[in-house]
Amino acid sequence: MRAVHRIHRCGVAARLVLLVATVGLGGCELSQVTVDTPESAVVVHSVLNADAEEQVILVESSLTGRVEIDSSAKFDPADPIRSAGGSPISGADVRLFVGSDTGGVRARETLTIRGGTGRYTVPRAALAIRPGERYRLRIRTPSGREVTGETLVPGAPADWTPGKGVTTVPVTFARDRDTLRLSWSASTGARTYAVRVETPFGPWALFSDSLRFALAGSLRNFFAPGLPSVFLPGFRQTVNVVAVDRNFFDYNRSGNDPFGGTGLISSVRGGLGLFGSMVGLLRRDVSVTATDRLPLDAAWSGVTPSGQPVTIDLWVDVPDPSASSLTGRQRTPERFVIGIQQGDAVRLAILSTLSRADTAAFFVGRLAGDSLTGTWDRRFDTALPAVLRRRPR
What we know:
It contains two helices and 27 strands. By secondary structure, the chain is mainly β. The termini are far apart.
């Protein structure tokens, strides 16, 4: 299969150095030239985690135009490559080795009704990842290509126990007056530490060479469009600190720059991508609140058509004369809320998870005094109150 690229041929200026000076001159025609697409590369993404129940290795082909991609598919965790617009490599022999092991532990590929997914897993029962150990990865594709990698898992601090990185510690956090202060013990062999906060607009994450980190309630997510708040009133947000190896650090600190000619720092041989490791050091389950200041900052209660009471806590996240952003939570069952207020018009999206892509219900209504009246979009959950009334929290 070949890709067709459009180029300009100008009779007046044939040399590239004169192209800018002669753009406005006549005698140019638009023609098509057929060129071969480049050979695809094997792309690997795997981060060994000492606390994970299974280790995941994603194996795919780089996109060169040879394969038609469905960019409209909804993300599926069981089929992460294809549903995210990638081209999985199925049927590969994927193995993890530890120490002087020569046979390795073979990973099993996740299969769906669409076939192989390029997602290979090794359960803890087959191979438990240990801090301070060195592991090797070997991938042999059906076409005969081989990709290898190696990682040294960061060492465990003296106070570390298996499962510490996934054991949550609940924290209540008043965004307008609190600062979340984190501290942890040093990990021998770690290249650095990564601090990550989960948000509905994508994660906020930074590296830290210190053993302490302070997160202000006013922090903005500069990784997301529009610089939304990191901490959102009404949400329960996970904050993690992990020790990472050099491979993880190098890959995530680099990026593709078509102008400078630099690219991602790959840690595998025979392909591209990341084979790294981490050790979880702490995990906080942060319940975010804020001081009530505006009329919409309240608990809003109503009764469903079937007679069930429902309460939704709302806060004005960022006030604005034209459109204020809103956040909150539905109490039972616990679901999270994002929305917009424009004058007396209010729109709310209720999320089934922390991601804004997982909309469970959508409300359009109007605020009049102590009442919020509207309708629920029929494409989602509609078994919710059409009238909500302000109540003290």
